[in-house]
Here is the input.
Amino acid sequence: MNEHSFYKCLITCSCYSHSILPNLQKLLSILKECYLNKITADKEKKIKHFFVEMYTNAIKHANVGNFEIEIDCYENEVFITKTDFGTKLPLPIQLLEGLTDEPVLIYNNLFGKKGQHLQIEFFVNNDIQVDPLNMFEHFGLQIIASSVDAFYYQYDTDKKSNIFKTKLFL
Amino acid sequence: MITCKISEINNYTVATILIAEANLDHSAKFKEQLIKLIDEGKQKIVVSFDLVTYVDSSFLGALVAALKHAIANDAEIIVACLNKDVEDLFKLIRLDKVFTIIPNLIALA
Here is the structure.
């Protein structure tokens, strides 16, 4: 990316479910101020869906009471990144160690593929219909991957942090 | 805290979720209540989201776990009264293909 972000901020969030909606409102206020009428009702809905799931994931996995959300605004896209200090996601080893260039089925219709610098890119394949009896009962990553234009995961082994980076075109 | 209020409409057992924010704080209790209904022999269970403003993946996971238990016990779970946001979330992860969704409880009467 060549352009520079015109606005960047960091929100420290507490790992309690009652904090989800106030922080969602804070995020939406920032985005509406930065992008004015580009935050359509449809975009707002998608932001709500993935933000709730990123937050819920942090509550489940963070080993400390707080985590961080960074908002990085560019002219036509925004990056929203969640960093928590918790346990590495239990993903297939081929993905975590970047052993294959092929997409790997994680569960239901969620796939992961190798990105840059040991990043994993998540995406969904909506052509796959999962039988209810075989359905994995975890939908958080699917919801995030279905709501944003790109979704990357990385585990920082030095800092022991889970990093979810999402991109949304505006 | 009770997650659902249980009532009967004709042959249907209606579990009305009593919380607005259907999230991970309530998902285990919700799943427990639905599984108890199935184990008691209820065969047509309608879960009403009438009072729910938002739902998260943990709660949806509990609903799917209950559905699997229902299918294994020849019971069914129908979902009712979704607001637009919640219905969109069902569609986003294609749960609208898994559950029968009805707009309200009038059809049960």
Remarks:
- Strands of chain A lie at 7-14, 66-73, 77-84, 104-107, 110-114, 120-124, 150-156, 161-169.
- The radius of gyration of chain A is 16 Å.
- The interface with chain B takes residues 17, 20-21, 45, 48-49, 52-53, 56, 59-60, 108-109, 126, 129-130, 132-133, 135, 137-140, 142-143, 146-147 of chain A (CB under 8 Å).
- Chain A has one domain: 7-169.
